[in-house]
Design brief:
The protein is an alpha+beta fold. It is built from eight helices and seven strands, in the order H-H-E-E-H-E-H-H-E-E-E-H-E-H-H.
Length: 287
């Protein structure tokens, strides 16, 4: 009896407003733009980011200018105790190690960092193989292929076109952002005497981090600048971004047409895609 009463309430609600409306589902695809924009560099650092797939808030990649350097933590004093060099921010890769934002006030930490023998002649840094972002990219690509195949099986050309355009748009956007880090390394074979590389980091909360290292580590992680070397030049990146913007605009028109010609097939496919996009946003936020 209670179940029938509950169903009657929802049935009446649907009839009162002319049936259930799923137009709001399309808004899920653009939720989380700030999160995606903040993670754009991290996402595009992996080669798997070039896979055509549905991503949340794809407009987060569409920027007029690409950042020249990796995001650093400002408001700190990073000083080389013996060398005398000082900067007022903590580089990106150094913060990956220390996670300085979580250091309690007036706390003191001591680290000892050294280079492996295999890394002393190579200062390059790359993304971890099969990181959470890589797994997420492959899963998103698989679901996108499944949605596209389902649209073709259902003879739903509008849905297939919308999914294909959104997937290609993500590949173009990530291609424009594809980059690799360039760290400032000490010139090997230098005959000049180099001081020890002990580093002191002071936070605004009165915390201190002391790092015991050599000068090579000090220049790589703390004193030198983390810059981004993009795989595409400025002109090619602008062309890729322009095409991605055009694909996104056309796909929005196509998705709107799906709702205007509302059918069960389009609603089903769009609902599955939107649920995946929203889950993708939540996973990106947790990384």
């Amino acid at each position: 009896m209670a179940g029938q009463r509950c169903n009657k309430w929802f049935q009446d609600c649907g009839e009162a407003f002319g049936g259930w409306r799923l137009d709001v589902v399309s808004l899920l695809a653009v939720i989380g733009e700030a999160i995606v924009a903040d993670q754009a560099q991290v996402i595009s650092s992996s080669p798997l980011s070039l896979l055509p797939r549905l991503i949340p808030a794809p407009q987060g990649f569409l920027r007029a200018e690409r950042p020249r350097k990796l995001p650093a933590v400002p408001g700190l004093v990073v000083k080389s105790i013996f060398g005398g060099s000082q900067v007022n921010e903590l580089n990106y890769f150094a913060n990956v190690i220390h996670n300085i934002e979580k250091l309690p006030n007036y706390a003191i930490q001591e680290w000892k960092i050294s280079l492996r023998d295999s890394a002393k002649s190579d200062a390059s840094v790359g993304p971890k193989t099969w990181s959470p972002y890589d797994i997420l990219a492959v899963a998103s690509f698989s679901i996108t292929v499944g949605l596209l195949a389902a649209a073709c099986v259902l003879h739903d050309g509008i849905a297939a076109l919308a999914i294909a355009l959104l997937a290609l748009q993500s590949s173009l956007s990530c291609a424009a952002w594809r980059w690799k880090p360039v760290l400032t390394a000490r010139v090997s074979g230098s005959s000049n005497e180099v001081p020890k590389g002990r580093i002191a980091i002071r936070t605004r909360g009165g915390g201190f981090v002391i790092v015991k290292c050599d000068e090579a580590v000090a220049r790589l992680l703390y004193i030198g600048e983390d810059t981004a070397l993009y795989c595409l030049g400025s002109t090619k990146a602008k062309i890729a971004t322009g095409l991605a913007t055009a694909f996104l605009m056309v796909s929005c028109v196509v998705v709107k047409s799906m709702y205007d010609n509302s059918g069960a097939n389009q609603h089903c496919l769009c609902s599955v895609a939107s649920c995946w996009l929203e889950t993708h946003v939540g996973l990106c936020k947790r990384q």
